[in-house]
């Protein structure tokens, strides 16, 4: 895994360095180079490492689409990127973000399938949290007429990941049962909706108790994440469940495996238990991995259980399975147009409010997806806090912990 992470990082760093080099060259060649607003991560650490500043606007290269961004998705993975807790992260400074929606502004040479003014959503290998992005055409998808930009930014990562785990990896079928952690999050809600498209699927959701009222109708059984959910599930289904979707890792890995029925599948697709404080914690990292049950292949063989991992971004950016993802996206858009699925948007935030948005997802306060709305006007407090204003363009870092004392901006359902 480490070797794969290192390989991915080399490719990512190359993409970032290449883009930075092109932008620098453009700035030197043209005094009137167009600029854009973007969220910059200056280094790994706390919220004070994030700033909104101006940078050179990218132009599409061969096979790329240039998108005027309207909305960006914010995921727990972005928080881990900020802290530097992902395996072999790229070197900062960088623009975070992996998904966005907007309008096609131009296309590069040999780019087919899209025209100026098309409404689209896209995957981006970093650089999504900006007013303009350029990304290869194979990562871009047209929006249905009725889909809003906020919904689109909440759709791509969450629903594609949920669909591929359920149907491509675990082979969900009629009458099966699924346990999903973080049932109130973006992926959790996508899983619940997709399970409802298959007859007689039982969904066990694990979530913080304050989310239960809002998400109770989306799952069959709902349990507090702080109780012994294994015993609660076994009271209902003594044999366990067919599929476990785990974005937590740590001690939940062993619990998930113990709940599997014969021929059941456990899928790990995240490790949010590693994130406790605002900055990277070696103790939390070590504790999470120490609690992971050591998997014995012989035991898997004897118990007829399957353990798997899933990373959509690796599948796209490293393993080149764009055509498979495109086929899944087509199926999902059909389900959306049939009104069988619909992204749940928790709240909208301006780029300058990215720190508050990240704090909300860190606190596990969201129900559904947090969205950065590029055109949203920030409150004066957030604008002064997150926008770079020094004449030299240097970041003026604030002491850690200041964010806790600031007024929280009301979120928008």
Shape: globular
Overall mean pLDDT stands at 83
The rounded distance between the terminal residues' Cα atoms is 38 Å
Task: Give the biggest sheet.
Answer: 7 strands, mixed
Helix content: 25-40%
What structural class is derived from the secondary structure elements?
Answer: alpha/beta
Low-confidence stretches at least 5 residues in length (pLDDT < 50)? 1-30, 280-291, 388-413
Description:
With 413 residues, the protein is an alpha/beta fold. 34% of the residues lie in helices and 22% in strands. The strands form three sheets. Strands 3, 4, 5, 6, 7, 14 and 15 form a seven-stranded mixed β-sheet that branches. A six-stranded parallel β-sheet has the order 10-9-8-11-12-13, with helices on both faces. Strand 9, helix 6 (212-215) and strand 10 form a beta-alpha-beta unit. Helix 8 runs parallel beside helix 9 (282-291). It is globular.
Helix-strand blueprint:
Elements: H1 2-29, E1 35-41, E2 50-56, E3 64-74, H2 76-83, E4 99-107, E5 119-123, E6 132-136, E7 140-142, H3 149-153, H4 156-169, E8 177-180, H5 186-195, E9 202-207, H6 212-215, E10 221-224, H7 229-236, E11 241-246, H8 251-259, E12 260-268, H9 282-291, H10 297-303, E13 306-309, H11 312-317, H12 322-337, E14 345-349, H13 354-362, E15 369-373, H14 380-386
């Amino acid at each position: 895994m480490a070797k794969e992470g290192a390989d991915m990082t080399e490719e990512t760093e190359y993409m970032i360095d290449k883009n930075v080099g092109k932008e620098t060259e453009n700035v030197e060649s043209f005094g009137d180079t167009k600029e854009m607003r973007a969220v910059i991560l200056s280094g790994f650490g706390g919220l004070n490492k994030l700033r909104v500043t101006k940078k050179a606007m990218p132009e599409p290269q061969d096979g790329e689409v240039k998108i005027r961004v309207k909305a960006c998705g914010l995921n727990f993975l972005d928080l881990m990127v900020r802290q530097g807790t992902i395996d072999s992260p790229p070197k900062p400074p960088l623009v975070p973000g992996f998904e966005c929606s907007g309008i096609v502004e131009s296309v590069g040479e040999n780019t087919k399938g899209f025209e100026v003014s098309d409404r689209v959503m896209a995957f981006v290998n970093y650089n999504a949290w900006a007013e303009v992005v350029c990304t290869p055409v194979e990562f871009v998808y047209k929006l249905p007429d009725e889909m809003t930009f906020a919904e689109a930014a909440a759709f791509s990562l969450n629903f594609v990941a949920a669909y591929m785990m359920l149907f491509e990896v675990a082979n969900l079928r009629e009458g099966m049962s699924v346990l999903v952690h973080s049932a109130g999050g973006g992926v959790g809600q996508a899983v619940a909706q997709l399970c409802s498209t298959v007859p007689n699927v039982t969904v066990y959701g694990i979530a913080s108790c304050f989310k239960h009222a809002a998400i109770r109708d989306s799952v069959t059984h709902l349990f507090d994440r702080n109780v012994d959910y294994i015993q609660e599930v076994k009271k209902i289904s003594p044999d366990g469940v067919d599929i476990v979707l785990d974005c937590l890792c740590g001690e939940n890995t062993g619990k998930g495996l113990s709940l599997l029925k014969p021929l059941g599948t456990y899928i790990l697709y995240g490790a949010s238990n590693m994130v406790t404080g605002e900055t990277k914690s070696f103790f939390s990292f070590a504790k999470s991995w120490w609690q992971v049950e050591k998997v014995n292949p012989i035991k898997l063989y004897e118990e007829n259980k399957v353990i798997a991992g899933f990373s959509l971004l690796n599948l796209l950016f490293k393993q080149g399975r764009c055509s498979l993802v495109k086929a899944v996206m087509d199926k999902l858009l059909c389900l959306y147009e049939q009104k069988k699925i619909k992204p749940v948007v928790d709240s909208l935030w301006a780029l300058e409010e990215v720190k508050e948005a990240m704090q909300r997802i860190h606190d596990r306060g969201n129900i559904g997806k947090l969205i950065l709305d590029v055109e949203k006007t920030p409150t004066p407090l957030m604008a002064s806090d997150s926008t770079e204003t020094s004449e030299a363009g240097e970041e003026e870092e604030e002491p850690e912990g200041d964010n806790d004392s600031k007024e929280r901006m009301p979120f928008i359902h």
